[in-house]
Amino acid sequence: MKKILFYLFFTAVVTIIPLAAQDKDDDESDRRENSYWNRVKIGGAGGVTPMAGMFNNNEIDKFLSASGLPTFGTDPMYLIGGEGYGYIMFLKNVRMGGFGASGTKTTNILQPMSTGGTIKKEVQYDVSYGGFLIDYVQPVAYRLDIAIGATIGGGSVDLTMRRHDDKFDAWDTLWNNFKNPNSQSTNYTHHMNGSFVVFTPHINIEYTLLTWLQLRIGAGYPMMFSPEWKLDDKYDVNGVPTKIKLDGYTVNAGIMFGYFGW
Q1: pLDDT in tens, 93-108
Q2: 221-241 pLDDT, tens per residue?
Q3: Which long-range contacts (CB under 8 A, 24 or more apart) does 148-153 make?
Q4: Which residues lie closer than 8 Å to 127 by C-beta, 6 or more apart?
């Protein structure tokens, strides 16, 4: 999956730049008659926007390291995003729509136990966010636009902690451990969910290949506010560090399908 996302991003970059340069000699009469800067955008589109999130993982890494797990470090998180929009005609070159993205990272380790056998520990880190989208689009050259805007909505950070030994899990054993308050079972799963308000300013460079096909590259900066944390979707969690959230920027490459008025 990581290789696929990288190739999509790389392909979009190396395609947009040469095509933009090549079109400098196309349709000179059209250029003289129509100023790109003053063109009015019409239409709408939807598509897929793979992303790489360059997030600061220092805070969560402290807890992973203290638990004997490998840290996330500076490796990017890969997300899959989706977007749809349409231009509104009463505001020039303004479009509105919706956007969403999600991604996950996992770290685990297999450790020996003092009583014999091994235990596997794992932490899964999931993020998702999205909401209402608004952009202002400025044509800058033939088929080439710059879009500046933002998304406001909601998002979540999910942390799932799992611990499991190598013993056989029998039905009766599982229920006996559950009902016994003095059970020393090493197997459990806990899920913590943080819900946030999310505001994401972004900028995209967009190149229209055909009237129905467009490529883009861009960057954004998701910002999370007002967290509410729950344990196992039910119980309040207190004392969660404020830096356990998305903290950093994203880069994206997208393929959009629709109608792109020139």
Answers
A1: 999 999 999 999 999 9
A2: 999 999 999 999 889 999 999
A3: 148/202, 148/203, 149/201, 149/202, 150/199, 150/200, 150/201, 150/202, 151/99, 151/198, 151/199, 151/200, 151/202, 151/220, 152/197, 152/198, 152/199, 152/200, 153/129, 153/197, 153/198
A4: 53, 77, 79, 102, 103, 104, 155, 156, 157, 158, 246
Considering the entire predicted model, what is its pTM?
0.80
Domains and CATH numbers, the chain: 2-24+42-260 (2.40.160.20)
The 10s digit of each residue's pLDDT in 45-66 is: 999 999 999 999 999 999 999 9
99-148 pLDDT, tens per residue? Answer: 999 999 999 998 887 777 788 899 999 999 999 999 999 999 989 999 99
